Amino acid sequence: MGPASNQSLRDDLELMEKHLEKLSTELSQCYEQIMLLYNLSTHMNLDQSCSTYLQLACDQLTQIVPVEGIAIFLEKKIEGGKRLVLSAGSGLLSIEPSMADILQMHLTAELTAGREALLDSQVDGPFKYAWSPRLRNILAVPVGPADRMAGFLVATNIQNKPDFDSTDVKLFHSVASQCAVFIENGRLFNDLKELFIGSLKALTNSIDAKDQYTRGHSERVALIARWTAEQMKETSPISEEEIHHIYLAGLLHDIGKIGVAESVLRKQGKLTDEERAVILAHPRIGASILSEIPQMRPIVPGVLYHHERYDGQGYPEGLRGPDIPLSARIIALADAFDAMTSRRVYREAMSIRRALTEVEKGSGVQFDPAVVQAFLGSPVENFWKAIQDGFIETWDYSSFEEYGIKAVGALIR
Ligand SMILES: [Fe+2]
Predict the structure, then answer these.
(1) 330 in helix, strand or coil?
(2) pTM (predicted TM-score)
(3) 375 - beta bridge partners?
(4) Which fold has domain 209-412?
(5) Residue 348 C-alpha to ligand 1 middle, in angstroms?
């Protein structure tokens, strides 16, 4: 073999090595991209907030495609109109939120023209659109289908190469559609939750209407129980899930009255033994109705034991002190407090101050002292003003600071 063919062999080898190197880089990039999409899909549980998920998407994306700025803008209903809101992102040096509308307009124009993204750069010539002077290139893709865009994902000034390429466009598209799925799932989940809670409220309102209590008793008990549980969270370990169960148990605590005749529930004179037995059975009836539904099982103890007393003098089992499940101890106080402050057929409503004194007197006797302490240690009077008459929906949002955002969040959740 002559020197010429040796040289050509060396050239071939060098070319192959370069090719191999390129392939291996591409392969590792592919791996990173798959891992990114895998991470996003495995984090798609609805326990986390939408903004946490979208931020995760932005952070992971910038690890693979280093950019100066990245953001997700989503359309939100604000004051009757739709506005684009910065929902996640980082390092947004080149795009101001005020630019969002203009950016969406340009993106829509590109999509309408049949392109899959807005890709504008000064690399190959002048920009198509007018951008901030700091901008070298920009990539934006829709979140959700192009014709029903929920928002968009945008990135500016790619760092490791002159311009975004078609691989980046595909990756941005995949990430944006994962985000769209998460947003849509969250919306469906919320719809379902609203339907579920709405149906329960309709059911308990119809039971309340049979009783001597004023309308909305169960809803108020649920709100007071949740409020009290929120206060207890400060000192004892109660999870958000448990608080939600306490709320539901509060809402359904008297569901066992469904089978009790109106004439018995409204009777003002002395009850016969038989009538008393029927009323005393309502916690058990309620518990047995709910235990038929697997998703309702965690709230059964709160319903079954809501008439137990801390001193052991309650029913149906005469449980005492900490033997009574916490949810039931909380609902017992909420139930009694609402009954005291509501107007009955046979007496006027007790003043809130008087009711609070009664609660204090009942500490360690009828009620758990820790529950009483949490309840009385909170701004009950302000809270009560907000929920009485069931006007919780008309809560004055301007007075948020007065009670603290967390407390109000607990109220309207
Ligand atoms: Fe009850």
Answers:
(1) helix
(2) 0.67
(3) none
(4) Hypothetical protein af1432 (1.10.3210)
(5) 20
